[in-house]
Amino acid sequence: MAQKPSIPKGTRDFSPTEVAKRSYIMNTIRTQFQHYGFQPIETPSFENSSTLMGKYGEEGDRLIFKILNSGDYFSKIKDGFNDLIKTSTLENFDKVSYDLKGMTKLISGKALRYDLTVPFARYVVQHQNEIEFPFKRYQMQPVWRADRPQKGRFREFYQCDADVVGSDSLWQEVEFVQLYDAVFTALKLEGVTIKMNNRKILSGIAEVIGASDKLIDFTVALDKLDKIGKEKVIEEMLSKGISEEAIKNVDPLFTISGSFGDQLATLKKLLATSETGVEGIEEMVFINDAIESLGLESAILQLDVTLARGLNYYTGAIFEVAAPEGVQMGSVGGGGRYADLTGIFGLPNVSGVGISFGLDRIALVLEELNLFPEEAIEGTKVFFINFGDKEALYAMKAIKKLRFQGISAEIYPNMVTSGKQMKKQMTYANRREIPFVILAGTQEMQDNTFTVKDMVAGEQETVTLEALIERLK
């Protein structure tokens, strides 16, 4: 019985049209990365488990795909496991459990990368003597997460990252806001909202309400405000041991509104007694003032004090990009400043900041809004009917010149032997939505011409190769 074909849950196949659309997005992002001076690198699909574990928080660690070691590793584990079971008793239960944990570690010493940021930090440390600081890199590769699949969320997906390490200048944050704006403007995706916050502001809030020891619990709950509402957020905070008095002191955050500057003014009053909080506000004022002076093409910059992503390694600015209003989609980009990410690999005090574009979600948004240009998904432009070997050779000489001019062209591999075969070739071209079909038979070969059929207009004419090239270009 034949095996039923299937793919793992949370993964996808991509058709030629879908690949063309994704390539359009990636090429647009890549072009802007290069305009801003970023250099490309690539890292392995999987890293040592020790490189990834403990870098994304407890929830993130659970979503890391671990890789089973193969060959002798597994046979040793199997033999060791069997021996332990044979000799296990209630008296030596603790020792058996300890030994099993040790063997489990041997099973998966590697893991699929969860994101591109931590592997990048590893790369910087490992190649620190070969790169120039500040180092501006971009990276466009797939990542994997053992998440629950849903609309816009997959277990295998691409990230398109840009980072700068070796500089703590706030001009980098300003440039990243501009870069987001440049990419989404180039994609004609106008009206995206670049949400910003600052880890120092969050730390300052926790400090002034007397909940510094509950910073993570406080910010994780606050981050859910727009999803579950004020009452549920308060319930979660109380369940995490944050006092009612502390929650009362932070009440202005639940209703904070106004422009970027207005919200900063409100926060400045709330955080007046926190040195860390004031520092975060000053950083945001600098970024906002610079952007107001430089201007944005189509994006909107917004302060969001509930934004609290990646708190395990972000230490300054935090970014998250939301799709235009009316599109039901999670964030299409995000990032932030990290003061010492490379320190975990032995290179301390190297500040960095980076952002990421969610390729898959951007594709879904462009699809929903019908923003893919026709040229982005255009495949073969010219299709030659095959009337026989002599005619095919005549066609192939023309195809060679067309391709040299950058015009995609091809010929049907099997020749016409009947009217039915002719119809089959025309149907093939029509189903592939190839706009022009070329007929080159005995008469065309004698006249050194080609008959061009416009598959959209339904018209046809006979032209020279030079005229054909001019028309198609």
Summarize, please.
This protein folds into three domains: 16-64 and 110-368, 2-Layer Sandwich (BirA Bifunctional Protein, domain 2), CATH 3.30.930; 69-107, no CATH class; 379-472, Anticodon-binding domain (Rossmann fold). The protein is 45% helix and 16% strand.
Structure description:
The chain has 3 domains: 16-64 and 110-368, Bira Bifunctional Protein, Domain 2 (BirA Bifunctional Protein, domain 2, 2-Layer Sandwich), CATH 3.30.930; 69-107, no CATH class; 379-472, 3-Layer(aba) Sandwich (Rossmann fold), CATH 3.40.50.800. Helix content is 45%, strand content 16%. It contains 19 helices and 16 strands. The strands form 3 sheets. The protein has an 8-stranded mixed beta sheet. Helix 1 packs antiparallel against helix 7 (171-186) and helix 8 (199-208) packs antiparallel against helix 14 (275-294). It is elongated.
